[in-house]
Structure prediction request, 228 residues.
Amino acid sequence: AQSVTQPDIHITVSEGASLELRCNYSYGATPYLFWYVQSPGQGLQLLLKYFSGDTLVQGIKGFEAEFKRSQSSFNLRKPSVHWSDAAEYFCAVGQTGGFKTIFGAGTRLFVKA
Amino acid sequence: GAGVSQSPRYKVAKRGQDVALRCDPISGHVSLFWYQQALGQGPEFLTYFQNEAQLDKSGLPSDRFFAERPEGSVSTLKIQRTQQEDSAVYLCASSQQEQVGVAQYFGPGTRLTVL
Prediction:
């Protein structure tokens, strides 16, 4: 069965520091992979997605993610975090041959001044 | 253009009451999804519509949950005889393509509290 694991429930980084949020998935074929961000009171917003091709994908707000098949990972990175990046981040995998998107439990990012 | 909207944004129900949650997807979007998000958890898939056809309802937790999209646009998620465990945020999402795994546009959600 498909699953998504985000090992870190919460992470705190200083403003201006680099960020990496981890995501591991379990899926038999090449997956569709997504990162979404959810700010308080807001709907989920797509940051970036991977379907095929270049394993390093660029997203909005300066985020990028790298698909590593050998590690079943799709980690999200940002070189310099801004206070406005504080939010909950969800990794997700799209089900090929079906209609479900499976979400991880999320990682809450705190940014300190 | 307008995004996905949901109403009401907040709903308080007494246990045993029926509730109806509305989703207005982005105009022209073929696909519509409902998710349930419990506190501190990621969204969990409930059901999927392609136009007016409900193609997957495998995530609906019980037969008290019912969803419809009769004209292929607005959708309603109905919960009958609500229970405390139904308390959650219910998210609606739409996408313009039929393909599986396409990125979705989410509404702000309806927070349901069952007392």
